[in-house]
Amino acid sequence: MSRTPVILITGASGEIGHGLIERLSTSQKKPIVTLDLAPLAPGLSSKVRQHYIGSILDSTLLDRILAEFEIDMIFHLAAVLSTGGEFAPLVAHKVNVEGTLAMLEFAQREGESHGRPVVFLYPSSIAAYGIPNLKAKAEAGRVREEQFNTPTTMYGCNKLYGEHLGIYYAGHYKQLSETPLAGKVDFRGIRFPGLISAITLPSGGTSDFAPEMIHAAAQGKPYACFVRPDTRIPFMAMPDAIEAMIKLALADKSKLSRHVYNIDAFSPTAEDVAAVVRKAFPKAELSTVVDTKRQGIVDTWPAEVDDSTARRDWGFEPRYNFTKAFEEYLIPTIHQRY
Ligand code: AKB
Q1: Distance from the alpha carbon of residue 325 to the mean position of ligand 1, in angstroms
Q2: Ligand 1 in reach of 205 Cβ (< 6 A)
Q3: Quick one: which of 16, 192, 197, 323 has the fewest CB in 10 Å?
């Protein structure tokens, strides 16, 4: 019996999965199969061929998926984020490293079985960077992919290592065996900035202060921001993150000069975000109560990254700058939500 070719999304019930399923279900002909420990959000089940509830570490479940479907493309979103990972580092390692390894091995096997490489889209993160102090952060400018690769969180270490595992699977897998096995995984990664969605809220991240501030204000709830007002890291509106993932996944491989790319959109301070939130929601009750530990994490992340290679190789171009993200996406969409 022939298997149906599909796109597989792991961690599909998380904040990126929501928009990715919506977008892929309208733009791609191929059916979508999803996997997560949790059910899909209401309204999404009808957009996927099948949702599996289970773990990326369950090899029996992965075998079941392979028996039924031919996987052409994987969006491997499942991860424990940077704050969550500091509370449970071993769990983060298991999910982020062992889980990624299991999915790469899965992609490798699948690529071998149908004779062409499986595109493996891997969301990495600005957490892969670790700038030693605020002076160095201020002087760093737009940080390039190969600079400051010294993360300080378990999640950052896991993401950086996940990138290296992907590159290994793409180019060097079992390099001493007689039959060449490398190249059956077409690994493509993006180092995402903090993401801000009008629809979903992240959980367990350290860039969460911006989306939390906006969603709290929209619901009329008070919010105490856990970082200093002058804290600056890169952010991006969720629709641009989703477009970028799809664009890189579909990009002509011959144009890609690297496996992992920075992308950037805007870099407001926490105070800049608070100011537009106050303007949009004049009754917003925003304050600051610095959590020195989480502050310490974002202080190691760059204020801006250099995404010129993504722009050149596969035409990355965000639609939303800071003003547009709020005026044209976040505020109007969030008003409909609450
Ligand atoms: C986090 O804060 O952990 C994530 C990220 C920047 O990757 N949002």
Answers
A1: 19
A2: yes
A3: 323
